[in-house]
Amino acid sequence: MNNLVLNWMTTPVITATPKTRLSEARILVDQHKIRALPIVENEKLIGLITKRSLLRLDLSSLVENIGQNHVTYQDKTLNEMMTTNLITASPKWVMPRAARAMLENKITVLPVLEKGEMKGILTNSDLLRFIITEYASLKKEIPVSNYMTDEVITIDPETSLLEAHRLMGTKRIRSLPVMDGEDVVGLVTRTDLMSSDPSRLESQNNQQLSLQILMQPVKKVMTKSLISVRANAPLTEAARLMLENKIHVLLVMDNKKKLTGLITESDLFLMIVQKFF
User: Fold this and answer.
1) Same domain, residue pair 178 and 128
2) Residue 252: beta bridge partners?
């Protein structure tokens, strides 16, 4: 069966050890263009660290903006920072089951284990490849409008990072389009905010620096190179754009190039669960 995790997981897997430094892990993630590093000891999977977590520990650009010395954690090792409560998949799972596990646990990577041995890793990119390849088997075109969110919360360029954090937390969203009047001028994602999250500094008695960081405007971290899709485009177009550009959200625009919604990886994973089970 072509819908088994075995046929879509990524292998071989780039791994690290508990003694790998954060600076070395960041190089591995960037060099191999991956979003997560499984951590292995004595050939057993013991943890995981994501690119998002690594970004959260690097405040260099924002700290430099306010004239402070960079507080670094890059010499710490992964055993101090890794996630150990892991959710894993079996190579014999069907892809909709894996998509549901990602959705329910709000994760984008599943180590694939068989009898305790890591056989591969299944990521959001693998699910996008599955959609692009297997979409034709549905024998019915599904437009972006069927799965997009049309009630979009927006902010302006001067909105503080603190307010953006608050909005994402209270509204349970991962992306905020940045508007200048009726025009979209940027996009702030949860990943962008993770790279500006000063919570690690607070434990070092740097509350004043933390506040200074959080009061900076979102225009300093927002993405300005925007990628969009039409509401009437097939879902495969959204999956292709996300995969090629390594992003997890797309602006949905109407014929007049006005913002009409957002579509995320989670929306596409929901489609896998609903249409491929």
Assistant:
1) no
2) 229, 261
Q: Look up residue 77 and give its amino acid.
A: T
First-to-last C-alpha distance (Å) of the chain: 13
Which pairing describes strands 259-264 and 183-189: parallel, antiparallel, or unpaired?
unpaired
Structural domain harbouring 107: 5-138
User: What is the reported pLDDT for 7?
Assistant: 97
Provide the pLDDT for residue 277. Answer: 84
User: Of 89, 122, 138, which marks where a domain is finished?
Assistant: 138
The Cα–Cα gap between 252 and 209 comes to 37
Tokens of 104: 């329910």
pLDDT (tens digit per residue) in 147-167:
999 999 999 999 999 999 999
Domain count, the chain: 2
Pull the structure tokens for residue 113: 């284990």
Q: Do 86 and 165 reside in the same domain of the chain?
A: no
For residues 235 and 226, what is the distance between their CA atoms, to the nearest angstrom? 18
Mean pLDDT of 87-108: 97
